[in-house]
Amino acid sequence: MAQNVLNRNVLSYRVMKRRETFAAYGFILPTLVGFLLFVLGPMLASFVLSMYDWNLLTPPVFVGLGNWQQLFADARIGGVYLTTAKLSLMVVTCNMTLGLGLAVLLDRKMPYLLRNFFRISYFFPYVVSGVAVSLIWTFLFNRDLGPLNYYLSQLGLSARTNWLNSSQFSPLAIVIADVWKNVGFYVLVFLGGMQAISRDYYEAAEVDGASGWQQFRKITLPLLSPTILFLLVISVIGALQIFEQPQILTNGGPGDATRTVVLYIYEQGFRFFDMGYAATIALSLFVIILILTIIQFRLSRRWVFYQ
Amino acid sequence: MATLAERRQETQTYTRSRRAFPWKTIFTIVILGFGAVLMIAPFMWIINAAFGDTSEVYVLPPKWIPLNPTLDNFDSVFEQVPYAGFMLNSFKLAVIVTVGQLITCSMAAFAFARLNFPGKNILFLVLISALMIPGQVTLVPLFILMRQLGFYNTHTALILPALINPFGVFLLRQYFLTIPSELEDAARVDGANVFTIYWRIILPLAGPVLTTLAILTFVSMWNSYFLPLIMINKPELQVLTVGLTLLQGQYGAGALGPVAAALAMAIVPVLIIFLLLQKYIIQSIVSTGIKG
């Protein structure tokens, strides 16, 4: 019968489906196992860990919400979060505005090689490690012998700025080093976003007599708004977690003037070995980042323009 | 009223006669040039410090080109710390993790892009949500886990967690989705099984995105600092990033020369790779902007 002939060499739909499912799980197995072991597992363990006092030498002691009480009673934590917020605000603002400004400049008509040269020079610090960048700037920021103070004095400004050990200037030093390293990334992403805007809009505006600034405000900015949101979100998340620059440039000092939250977590967890408390602080940071991200997305409905 | 075409022609004539002197372009290039100098100058200063002898370093006004280049600083580096070991360790880890990630991420991305199975969408969402978790939350438990497993102070502790990369899976999946399914259908008709499709069709076509992921992963591993910092404290197993801070710790705030030499040796490989591959790297970042 036609039915038998058809079914002889062809597998049934169910068998094929099962084989495909089996193969699919096989393909995602490494990633899945890794995810459970190294992401989800630790994440859940973090919650559990925050309810214990454990210094790795003696057995863990259950303290329930004790670590959280300690967090809210901690005299230093408020300052640490404030410092992190200040630094993040400065870093994000500088990166976004400088990045956008430089991208606008780079978008102009110029010889291809020249634009390429600029893109390479602005982006190179981004691929260098944060450690190397911080070490370089440690020398540049040297109060008496560093080139930065020298050139500043040539310009008539004070030559004795203590960049690395003053509560007034050390935060600035960290911002400078961080922006120097990262602005290239923002420039490139903004450039990409701007290249996606059709030239027709600008031509039409030109015909209607719009000035460059008007074109920027009414065409570039709205059409760039998804890119701006994307960069804003990841830059806030990144800024709240800076570690390498403050650790290497100032080690949180003087006192706690540049102690970021992650620096504090490192100190509590890997210098004082208060594992439970470190996990608790990390969780609080996670919650704050989550809330800020949600707020950003909610607010974005008002100003982001999708086409 | 003049038509759009007439008005456009009028504007063109007007700007053509005005294009006498490109003030704006010159102004733009000057500012960009100044910025580029600020970006490059620190590197030049460090390279100069690396090759200069102690009298030329930390001199004011700052020197940019060493007049008596010497290799003494480089010698000091190798005397103070096992620097070659640091570089080798970083290289070994970066290569292993890059190859490993290419395999695991492409396999998972293939499954998510081209196969159908129950729970596919949920699993993908869960995987992507992992990108939102700040590293520090998983760090402390990861440290404890590695200790309990006996992997503390081994390279395994650094390799294993890095073998999975949700971002890599996402990136590859988006690319695989753009590969036309006709190729796959034709292969299936010819009797190819799932693995053959993965190995013979999808992978060869995914060259560009695999290269991008490889570069991003290699650079990320080469520059990683926090994880090696907490997982390793044996100098012979240490990586370059932490090793640089160890070298600086040996000298305190004073000695610029040897640390500069170490930095120069750390940065030059990155510079070479970057210059060779910058087309790929820059293009992938720029296209993030186009899509985002």
Commentary on this structure:
- The complex is a heterodimer of chains A (307) and B (292).
- Chain A has helices at 2-9, 13-49, 66-73, 75-106, 112-127, 130-140, 147-154, 170-195, 199-207, 212-239, 244-249, 261-270, 275-303; strands spanning 52-53, 61-62.
- Chain A is mainly alpha-helical.
- Chain A folds into two domains: 12-62, no CATH class; 70-303, MetI-like fold.
- The radius of gyration of chain A is 26 Å and the shape is globular.
- Chain A starts with a helix and ends with a helix.
- Chain B has 292 residues and is mainly alpha-helical.
- Chain B folds into two domains: 23-70, no CATH class; 77-291, MetI-like fold (Orthogonal Bundle), CATH 1.10.3720.
- Chain B contains 14 helices and no strands.
- The two termini of chain B are 41 Å apart.
- At the A-B interface, helix 2, helix 4, helix 5, helix 6 and helix 7 of A face helix 1, helix 2, helix 4, helix 5 and helix 6 of B.
